[in-house]
Design a protein that fits this description.
Number of helices: 2
Number of domains: 1
Radius of gyration: 16 Å
Structural class: mainly alpha
Strand content: under 5%
Helix content: over 70%
Order of helices and strands: HH
Oligomer: single chain
Largest sheet: none
Distance between the termini: 16 Å
């Protein structure tokens, strides 16, 4: 029983790590877009902000049990 619960916790942490990575990379891309500026920079910032939003939303998604 304890091993099954531990596996579920580890699986959830793995998913959370991926979500944080996507959101963190999105923040980095957003910063690059801010540095570039202009229309191109605005597009890059939008791309980065979309990844931040998707990473945060992914954290709210329930885990899938197999």
């Amino acid at each position: 029983m304890g091993g099954k619960m531990l596996a579920e916790v580890l699986q959830r942490q793995k998913g959370m790590t991926t979500s944080w990575t996507v959101a963190g990379l999105g923040l980095a891309v957003t910063g690059v877009g801010k540095l570039v500026g202009g229309h191109l920079g605005a597009g890059i910032m939008g791309f980065g902000l979309a990844h931040v939003a998707l990473g945060m939303l992914d954290m709210l998604r329930p885990t899938v049990r197999h």
